[in-house]
Write a structure and sequence with these properties.
Cytochrome p450; 48% helix; three-stranded antiparallel beta sheet; alpha+beta; five-stranded mixed beta sheet; 10 strands; 404 residues
Length: 404
């Protein structure tokens, strides 16, 4: 058994690490740590603290599936990945994404029925209509267009607003607050303000739906009487942010990856049946959860001969796990025919993403429709001028000027 003492921070990779020449690949520092130290090493965080870095698929999957590793951000030793997160710990009502069982299971159970595959499949005609109408507006305005602003962001925002019962006319407000919560450069005051404003907004909306019920997720949540308005508001904030930020960035970044790999895009145009597998491959290849998934050990655990002590923070680096050659052969190549369902982009274990059926449906419809209707789609700026979201908790592009 081996242990690693806290060494000099300058000898370790840091989170977040700088991207290399390929914006779709994990930072070279993580890949170098995997090659030289192995799949378990140490990493330095923004505040100088350290935690364990897991870069292998098997090791990351093990931690995410083992309940001896806690998702509760309030535990001492839990890795805080960027400054504003500390304020969220102390000021906000915790939701299931950052809780352990049984409280995690209690909250999650209240929402499971709204995101099961059967319900999402029944929504496909509505999603297709939203995609078509959004694309109609973009085409009518003519190119060049910003694919993020005009397509990738409105589609999931409209869908999650429809589901939650949030008025879409408020989208600029919640997108602004979402940006503040996810920006790595936000000050504690920025985070505090954004969190308070979003919580107040959702609490007021939840109270209104308690008085005037409808068929929305938020209305059904408060109608069950098993959560307080504060808890309902916190869960609403989580769903609202996760429901549009992740899918929007995957749509835009996925489109860019296909534009850079035109032979893969052509395969999807010629054989639409490939789209489901292609979305899994894009999720694997791009990994927008680029900072990793944090946990903290509740007791001593040995992994591959390395002792992770109780109270040690652990960071499963999903981007490198999704490029692990032991699982995905020729992993640095985008291949829309690959069987990629073993990727960890939605997490693993009891905390894996609740909304993954919805995300899959939205991505399949949005990407396939875009490819079919705009066969001449291309970048309107040089590839080198694209601005990537290295400054945000969710990776992607800030804008994507395109024409057709």
């Amino acid at each position: 058994m081996t242990t690693v003492a806290n060494g000099a921070a300058d000898s370790m990779p840091t989170v977040p690490a700088a991207r290399g020449t390929c914006p779709f690949s994990p930072p070279p520092a993580y890949e170098e740590a995997h090659r030289t130290t192995g799949p378990i090493s140490r990493v330095s965080l923004w505040d100088g603290s350290q935690c364990w870095l897991l870069t292998g698929h098997r090791q990351a999957r093990f931690v995410l599936g083992d309940r001896r590793f806690s998702a509760d951000i309030r535990h001492p030793g839990f890795p805080i990945l960027f400054p504003g997160r500390r304020e969220l710990v102390t000021r906000s009502t915790p939701t299931f994404i950052r809780l352990d069982d049984p409280e995690h299971a209690r909250q999650r159970r209240l929402l499971t029925g709204d995101f099961i595959i059967k319900r999402v499949e029944a929504m496909r005609p509505q999603i297709q209509q939203i995609v078509d109408e959004t694309l109609d507006r973009m085409i009518a305005r003519g190119g060049p267009a910003d694919l993020v602003r005009d397509y990738a962001l409105p589609v999931p925002s409209l869908v999650i607003c429809l589901l939650l019962g949030v008025p879409y006319e408020d989208h600029e407000f919640f997108q602004k607050q979402s940006h503040a919560l996810l920006s790595l450069s936000s000050t504690p005051a920025d985070v505090e303000t954004a969190q308070d404003e979003l919580n107040s907004y959702l609490a007021e909306l939840a109270a209104r739906k308690q008085r005037e019920p409808d068929d929305s997720v938020l209305s059904r949540l408060v109608a069950k009487g098993e959560v307080t308005l504060e808890e309902a508001a916190a869960m609403g904030v989580l769903l609202l942010i996760a429901g549009h930020e992740t899918t929007a960035n995957m749509t835009a970044l996925g489109t860019l990856a296909l534009l850079q790999n035109p032979e893969q895009a052509e395969r999807l145009r010629s054989d639409p049946s490939l789209i489901k597998g292609a979305v899994e491959e894009l999720l694997r290849y791009l990994t927008i959860v680029h900072l990793g998934v944090p946990r903290v050990a509740l007791e001593d655990v040995e992994i591959d001969g390395t002792l992770i002590k109780a109270g040690d923070g652990v960071l499963s680096m999903i981007s490198t796990a999704n490029r692990d050659e032991e699982v995905f052969q020729d992993a640095d190549r985008l291949d829309v025919t690959r069987e990629a369902r073993r990727h960890l982009s939605f997490g693993f274990g009891v905390h894996q993403c609740l909304g993954q059926p919805l995300a899959r449906a939205e991505l399949q419809i949005a990407l396939q429709t875009l490819l079919e209707r705009l066969p001449g789609l291309r970048l309107a700026i040089p590839y080198e001028d694209v601005r990537y979201r290295t400054d945000m908790a969710i990776y992607g592009v800030h804008e994507l000027p395109v024409t057709w």
